[in-house]
Amino acid sequence: MTSSEILTIVVLFTILCSGQTSQEPTDDPQLSQQEMENELAEAMTALLGRYQPHLPSSEKRGIPQCAVGSRCAMRLGPRFGKLCECVRGSNCNSFLLKCI
């Protein structure tokens, strides 16, 4: 499950829960607002905890990460061998063989 799917689920959950109110009459509206925020935070924590193991990570793939400017690939004749994964926001340039 990608982060965009998780964000969509959280937004839909927030929209659905914002219309629900408690049946108990309370004198302090700020207290009921805090209770609703706490319940929503607990539900979102449980939801994210359930999907946390499914998020992709570089440790699971076994490929180390390269810093920007470091060598990320090797040319072996007509083929390229990947040495490491570039950090997020950069990619491996096939001409320079470095993360840029």
List the helices and strands and how they pair.
Layout: H1 3-18, H2 29-51, H3 58-61, E1 65-66, E2 73-76, E3 79-82, E4 85-86
Parallel strand pairs: 1-4
Antiparallel strand pairs: 2-3
Shape: rod-shaped
The residue-averaged pLDDT reads 76
Distance between the termini: 28 Å
Secondary-structure class: alpha+beta
Number of helices: 3
Low-confidence stretches: none
Strand content: 5-15%
**Major sheet description:** 2 strands, parallel
**CA-based gyration radius:** 23 Å
Strand numbers in spatial order across the main sheet? 1-4
Q: What is the H/E string?
A: HHHEEEE
Approximate helicity band: 40-55%
The total count of strands amounts to 4
Features:
secreted; 100 residues; disulfide bond; 3 helices; 43% helix; neuropeptide hormone activity; single chain; CART_C_sf; two-stranded antiparallel sheet; alpha+beta
How does this model look, in words?
Helices cover 43% and strands 12% of the residues. The longest helix has 23 residues. The strands form two sheets. Strands 1-4 form a two-stranded parallel ribbon. With 100 residues, it is α+β, with helices and mostly antiparallel strands. α1 runs antiparallel to α2. The protein is rod-shaped, with a radius of gyration of 23 Å.
Quick summary:
The protein is α+β, with helices and mostly antiparallel strands. The protein is built from 3 helices and 4 strands, in the order H-H-H-E-E-E-E.
